[in-house]
Each structure stands twice: as structure tokens, then as C-alpha cells.
Design goal:
Layout lengths: L1 E4 L2 H8 L12 E7 L4 H14 L6 E4 L10 E5 L5 H4 E5 L7 H10 L11 E8 L3 E8 L6 H20 L24 H24 L17 E8 L1 H13 L4 H18 L7 E9 L14 E4 L2 E3 L6 H17 L2 H14 L3 H9 L8 E5 L9 E2 L2 E9 L8 E8 L2 E9 L5 H21 L5
Parallel strand pairs: 5-6, 9-12, 12-15
Antiparallel strand pairs: 1-4, 2-7, 2-14, 3-4, 6-7, 8-16, 9-10, 9-11, 13-14, 15-16
Helix pairs in contact: 1-10, 2-5, 6-10, 7-12, 8-9, 8-12
């Protein structure tokens, strides 16, 4: 069998997976469909998809030890995709209305053992009234959000070929490369080395800040019990509403991305204070792509680093002053390449660890290092997915959690329609509590928009 060596983020995503601890690290993309694509056609489409995206059918093998003791791993590519493991069909047309909800929860909570099964699964469900749902569940080690967004149109293309009884072209079946993470960096080997050393300085800087001003342990950071379900509340945003938010952020000298990040931080502050937690300092990881801008770079893999805005809530209070502070910090981090320095140091360190030791770092940390996680892919819209007798009307995403960030906000865009996806661990926060947080978030944004002379 062919092998693809693991990258740093492959290993990190595998380390963040634990069945006994309730952490799947496998996001689910839910496609709401008008029409009912036949499972046989989807099976054929999936077979072609695995030609163009071979890691979708791969499993993981340790290269220098057991699953726990190995430091190095690889993707093992089968000669024939195990389609029975990759596709599942449920006919719910005659089932109670809540059958789809029970199926969804079960899909969200599924654990992928990558040593025995592939990192992708498609679950098709037929519903009454000629409707369907397609759950595209992927382990995060397979690819990042941008790569998945670029893959979905190819899945639709192959499905339409299967429905029409036609064969994809050789170009359509050409393998999408899984490029090395360092391919995305325009750096010489010496530059990488010095940035790696400088990454130590970034961690020392963070440690000194924490000594002076300890990070507040929020409600969602306190528990290590991640045995509960992976749940998500989806909040749709109309084009008018999103436009009003964008205009308000621009009038205040910012942009929509950092306005929403600020709103998430401020809302969590007020939500925690309502529960008796005094909030003084809070931080968040915000995903940043490492793919180069302004040049083609197609890669079905993970290419991510993180900015970490850090807010002193004894000095800053609302969106209007938190947003520019986030922008100032992110600019400063970009200017000194802080996110790249941290990435390169973490990469070097993580690749030296045995898997069991890596997992201990992630699941047994005695303190809160990061309060929140915020991921925004509004700028990478999922194009309209449709074909003969079927059309995707909406796409939602559910992201599972790992300690100690039990509430995560992701923003997605399907065909111009935006959705706020509030992901939470049911063993740490209840649905009612997260709904209350959403209410605070919406109220804070509304107040900010009104203060900037806007509405909606």
C-alpha cells in the first residue's frame, strides 16, 4: 500500500482524539437537500471522490512503535476504497419527525478510530416530502475547513455524473495534492530555523503575561468532563442583517471578522459574570490560514496557524473598544510573525513526542491556557450545490470540542447565506445556557450596530 507521512497537524488532530474521553475531533457538514439522491449514485460518486482525494479512504499506521508509543505515523492508502465503511443510508420517510434529530446527534457523537477506518463518512437520509439530508463527517486530521469547502463541489460534480450515467474526465479525476504544511511558507530553511527559536520567545512572553495577569477560568473552561454529546445551535443571518453588521464594523474602523470576534469575547464576559464569575482577562485562538495569498495553492490537507488576541477586561469593555484592540494585537502578531513562530516551535516539539505524551498535554492540562476558539470562513463561501432533481438549500457545520474550550463559534457561508454555529459540549454547558449566550451575543451586536448609526 502507498503511504503518506504525517504532518504536524495530522498528528495534532489525531492526538486530540479520544473515544473514552468523548472527543472525536471530527466535524460534520450537514447538507439540507430538496430532492432525494439515490444511495447507489452517491456510492458511485464517493468511489470517484476517493480517486481524486485518496486520503478520504486511508487509515493511519504507526511507523516506529505502537499506537501510543510511536512518534511518527503515516496515512496508508488502500488499493480499493472501503465504500461500505464510507457510506451509510437511512430511509426515514415513514419514521417519526424526530428521527432525523436522533440520527444527527448520533452522527455528531461518532468516534472515528483512524487506525481501523477512514477519516470520512457520508450518511444519507431520505425524509418525507421529497427531502433529504447528507451528513459529511470528516476527521479534522483529513483536512481543514477550506479544503473541505473546495471538496464539496467535486462531490456534487461526481454525483451528477453518476445520476447522468456519464464518466468524469481524467482532469476531473486528477488527484488533488496533499501538500506538505511547510510548502505554504515562503521561507528558507534558515528562516524556518530562526523562527522556530523565536517561537520559544513567544511562549515566554505569554508566560510572563499570565504571571502578571492570570487568565480567568470561564464556566466553559472549568470542567474536563467531555463525556457529553457534541451539540450545535445554528443561527442563520439574513443578507440584510449581515450587511448591517459589516457596515457598522466598517464605520467603527474595523471589519466584520474582528467585530464578531470581539462580540464573542464580550458576550462570554457578560454571560460568565451573570453566573458569578469575575472576568478580568480572556483570550481566544482565531484560525489563520497559512496558504499563500495571491498565488494558486490547492491542497487537501490542514494549513492552519492561530492568532491569539488577549483582552484585559479591566481596561476594555464593549465591542467598540475590544474590536480595535483585537485588530491592533493581530497586526502586531502579524508584523513579528508570532503565529508562524508559534507554529514552527509547536511543530518541532509535537513531532518529538510519543502519542501518549501528546494526548496528556491536550487532555490533562492542570490550567486553562485558552478560553475561547473562534473560526470564521465567511470569506470562503460554499458555492451552490445542485443537479438534476436535487438542490442543497443550506449547509451547516458542527464542530466537536476538546478541553478546555467547551463552547466554540464557527461562521459559515453557503451561497451567500451566513450561519453562526455555536458548538458546545453537553456535559459542560446546557442548551439553555448556550441559548442564553447567543441572546447576549445578539444583544451586544445590536447595541453596537445601533451606536454606529445602523439598524437590524
Amino acid at each position: 500500500m502507498a503511504m503518506l507521512p504525517f504532518e504536524y497537524l495530522d498528528k495534532a488532530c489525531l492526538a486530540a482524539t479520544s473515544g473514552p474521553l468523548g472527543c472525536s475531533n471530527a466535524p460534520t457538514w450537514e447538507l439540507l437537500i430538496d430532492g432525494q439522491p439515490p444511495p447507489d449514485a452517491l456510492r458511485q460518486a464517493l468511489q470517484w471522490l476517493c480517486v481524486a482525494y485518496p486520503t478520504c479512504a486511508a487509515t493511519v499506521v504507526p511507523l516506529d512503535g505502537t499506537q501510543d508509543s510511536a512518534k511518527h505515523f503515516a496515512w496508508s492508502l488502500p488499493e480499493t476504497p472501503p465504500l461500505d465503511h464510507l457510506l451509510e443510508f437511512h430511509d426515514l420517510r415513514a419514521e417519526p419527525a424526530d428521527a432525523i434529530d436522533r440520527l444527527r446527534e448520533g452522527v455528531h457523537d461518532r468516534f472515528f478510530d483512524l487506525f481501523t477506518r477512514p477519516p470520512l463518512q457520508l450518511i444519507l437520509a431520505w425524509l418525507p416530502d421529497n427531502r433529504a439530508r447528507l451528513f459529511v463527517k470528516q476527521h479534522h486530521g483529513l483536512a481543514d475547513g477550506r479544503a473541505m469547502i473546495e471538496m464539496l463541489p467535486d462531490l456534487a460534480l461526481f454525483l451528477n455524473h453518476a445520476l447522468a450515467g456519464t464518466q468524469p474526465t481524467l482532469q476531473q479525476l486528477a488527484v488533488i495534492p496533499r501538500r506538505a504544511e511547510l510548502d505554504a511558507f515562503d521561507l528558507t530553511s534558515w528562516q524556518r530555523f530562526w523562527l522556530l527559536l523565536a517561537g520559544i520567545g513567544e511562549y515566554v512572553r505569554s508566560a510572563f503575561v499570565t504571571l502578571r495577569r492570570p487568565l480567568t477560568v470561564l464556566k466553559q473552561n472549568a470542567s474536563l468532563d467531555y463525556s457529553g454529546g457534541n451539540r450545535t445551535l445554528h443561527v442563520p443571518l439574513s443578507a440584510v442583517q449581515l450587511g448591517a453588521w459589516k457596515d457598522a464594523a466598517k464605520r467603527a474602523g474595523g471589519n466584520l471578522n474582528w467585530m464578531m470576534a470581539a462580540a464573542f469575547l464580550v458576550a462570554n464576559k457578560h454571560w460568565n459574570e451573570a453566573q458569578g464569575i469575575k472576568v478580568t482577562r480572556m483570550n481566544a485562538t482565531t484560525a489563520a490560514e497559512t496558504r499563500p495569498r495571491g498565488q494558486p495553492f490547492r491542497s487537501f490537507a490542514n494549513h492552519l496557524a492561530f492568532h491569539i488576541p488577549d483582552i484585559d477586561f479591566t481596561r476594555f469593555h464593549g465591542i467598540a473598544d475590544v474590536m480595535p484592540e483585537i485588530q491592533r494585537q493581530v497586526k502586531a502578531q502579524n508584523d513579528r510573525r508570532a503565529h508562524l513562530k508559534r507554529y514552527l516551535f509547536e511543530r518541532w516539539f509535537a513531532l518529538t513526542l510519543k502519542m501518549a505524551d501528546f494526548r496528556k498535554l491536550l487532555f490533562s492540562s492542570p490550567r486553562t491556557v485558552v478560553n475561547l476558539n473562534f473560526s470564521n470562513v465567511l470569506a470562503i463561501p460554499i458555492p451552490r450545490l445542485q443537479g438534476p432533481d436535487w438542490q442543497v438549500t443550506d449547509v451547516r457545520v458542527a464542530t466537536p470540542l476538546i478541553p478546555r474550550t467547551a463552547i466554540v463559534l464557527t461562521l459559515t457561508n453557503y451561497d451567500g447565506a451566513a450561519t453562526l454555529n455555536f458548538n458546545f459540549k453537553a456535559s459542560v454547558a446546557t442548551q439553555a445556557e448556550v441559548q442564553a449566550l447567543i441572546g447576549v451575543f445578539q444583544a451586544e451586536v445590536a447595541q453596537f450596530v445601533a451606536a454606529q448609526g445602523g439598524g437590524v
